Amino acid sequence: MSVPSTKSFHWQSLAPLAIGRVYCAPVESGGRLYLIGGCDESGAPMNVCEAYTPEANQWTTLPPMPTARAGAAVAALGKRVLVMGGMGVHQNPLSTVEMYNVEEGKWEKKKPLLEAAMGISAIVKDCQVYAVGGMGSDTFPRGHLQQYDVRNDAWHALHAMPTPRYAASAFFHAGKIHVFGGRQAKNPVTAFEVFDTETRVWSRFPSVPCRRSFSSYVMTETSFLSLGGLQQARGYKKPKFVKNVEVFDIEQGGWTKNTRHLNMKTKRADFVAAYLQGRVVVAGGLGDQPSVLSSAEALHPVKNRWERLPPMPTARCTCAAAVFRNSLVVMGGVAQAPSNAVEALCLADS
To answer: Contact at 8 Å (CB) between 126 and 136?
Structure first.
């Protein structure tokens, strides 16, 4: 397999956000990148929405979202952006659903979720949106699977996920929704469960081998990877940052035996991870002290080892990120305060 050399990657500083923020939600629609809501420096949810136009290297402030929120789930449906749930101004989960029409530049209220929730994971398939899990108003995790029919503006309850959780990682592959990790209160979840959108049945798969929170998950053509995080210690010991990497082989249907040489170079949690140009890449996050990190690295798929990339110009964690036009765009996040930095990891010829 031919993959680009780490020397081919570089960071490009893009136009900054109008306001520094964290827990904002990115989504691509119509060749532009949208960033929805978030929290400001005081921790208050915001109704700010911006759209990035790469040709002009410019962020445009859009009409404010009717409902201020942070940590919302978002989905692109053609030239419309659907925003679901999240945390409201009273630190409460929301059931509110709103849609932004890209061409008209207008917001429209839609049917609410069947139950208020934050920490929802969203998947789009054939004009259907699936909202997975979340945390309810009583702070307990939910196993809900809600399906939104955009044509009829209606939500339908499907079979609940076997393991209630919020802030899970969800991927769509081969007609199925794959759900990894997440949390139940302060406890990390290791359950890996799969929903078949044709048969509408959940299946349990082998759990993630290592129990940790604030880890990242990435899907490649052949595997799912569980990366880093904060591992819960036994007894009175403090949790510890780890550099563990576990690989689930899609064809074999199981987790491959972990070897130390596959671990990342740097222990980190709450970081950005993506599959970019044939490589799994990670950047930023929190490290051992704990302190915010700028370091970045890429996994070579043949050598099965991590190689250092140029560091991200702005050290930070809890960033929003999206693969956009063959680059990894990292937006906002936290250093000592919410950041307005926007930086893209690109190839030299991009």
So the answer is: no
Q: Which residues of 187-207 are buried (b: 16+ CB within 10 A; e: fewer)?
A: ebbbbbbbbebeeeebeebeb
For residue 63, with 0-12 CB atoms within 10 Å meaning exposed, 13-18 middle and 19 or more buried, which class applies? exposed
**pLDDT category of residue 224 using cuts at 50, 70 and 90:** very high
What is the pTM for the complete model shown? 0.96
**pLDDT per position as a tens digit, 77-86:** 999 999 999 9
Say if residue 104's pLDDT is above 70. Answer: yes
Work out the angle at residue 151's Cα, subtended by the Cα atoms of residues 146 and 154, and round it to the nearest 5 degrees. Answer: 35
pLDDT digits (tens, 9 = 90+) for 225-238: 999 999 977 666 78
Contact present, 191 and 162 (Cβ < 8 Å): yes
Please check whether residue 27 is in contact with residue 316, taking contact to mean a CB–CB distance below 8 angstroms.
no
Q: Is 262 strand, coil or helix?
A: helix
Distance between CA atoms of residues 315 and 19, nearest Å: 17
Contact predicate 19/336, CB 8 Å: no
Burial 131-149 (b: 16+ CB within 10 A, else e): bbbbbbeeeebbbbbbbbe
DSSP state of 260: G
Mind listing the pLDDT tens digit for each residue in 196-214?
A: 999 999 999 999 999 999 9
Q: Which two tokens stand for residue 186?
A: 């302060």
Among candidates 85, 88, 89, 80, which has minimal Cα distance to 97?
85
